[in-house]
UniProtKB/TrEMBL annotation, chains A, B:
One Pfam family cited in the UniProt record for this chain: Cupin_2
Top-level taxon of origin: Bacteria
Protein name: Transcriptional regulator
Taxonomic classification: Bacteria, Pseudomonadati, Pseudomonadota, Alphaproteobacteria, Rhodobacterales
Keywords assigned: Metal-binding
GO molecular function, one term: metal ion binding
Classification via InterPro entries: Cupin_2, GPI/OXD, RmlC-like_jellyroll, RmlC_Cupin_sf
């Protein structure tokens, strides 16, 4: 049955980031709706941001297109040019390889939610805009480095 | 600027189907939001169904995953097992190669809308469940056939 029952989709919390970045993702959770529906070519997650929560560190993807639609509350999109408020139904697209990093912040005192779609590329590099940090993903493994590719050993 | 201004996205109407199927798509229109945002790996369309309109003929995709979230009104999803009503926020997934054809009907007297995401595969075959019809897409060209692959020459 292709209709997805969200009550049967596990709520994913936590982060693959090393500390101190993982703790900065407190208040963020998501439902992996696409996975629950058996999709393999792109991910579709419904992300919940508690008041004050971040969607991620500000980042851009090398290989994967990304699309977001706000479904509840107000999300503040932050990019190089600064913040923009997005309400229910507002959409944004982040083409693979576009180096203007993005993330969403819930600056309100109410829950905010957005649907996010991202291609599942065989390998991926996410580069973080505001901290010297990068994640390479491939072969089911995440490798954390600085921007110059040397192994991550804490913030610098 | 990655935030998409829907008022600047052209409203797409019509259908690639030959007649009489094209005329059956009356009352359906869409905004190609993903294309407007520069995405190339998957399409994201906001589809509007006037009262009585169909999203498409009932079909399944050979190569492309598909995901739908209802964003306004009520859409009736029809598959082999029959109709299911979906309201705002309800989601459904249709993995590539799953042969249980689907489409959406607006059986209400109000506008209904849904967001649909589909992979952009290099080649694709859509097979229609309720009529002897198939579309092969590749190299920027659509070829219409019967289920057995012979050229389409009208309903039979």
């Amino acid at each position: 049955m292709p209709v997805i029952d969200p009550s049967k989709v596990p709520v994913k919390t936590g982060s693959i980031y090393p500390e101190p970045y993982a703790s900065m993702m407190k208040g963020r959770s998501s439902l992996r709706l696409g996975d629950a529906g058996g999709l393999t070519q792109f991910g579709v997650n419904l992300v919940t941001l508690e008041p004050g929560a971040l969607s991620s560190l500000r980042h851009w993807h090398l290989n994967e297109d990304e699309f977001v639609m706000v479904t509840e509350g107000i999300c503040t999109l932050v990019q190089d040019a600064g913040p923009v408020e997005m309400g229910v139904g507002d959409c944004a697209a982040f083409p693979a390889g576009s180096t203007d990093g993005h993330h969403f912040i819930n600056k309100t005192d109410k829950i905010a939610r957005f649907l996010v779609v991202g291609t599942k590329a065989k390998s991926e590099v996410a580069t973080y805009s505001d901290v010297d940090f990068r994640v390479e993903i491939g072969g089911g493994k995440a490798t954390f480095t600085y921007w110059d590719g040397t192994p991550f050993a804490g913030p610098r």
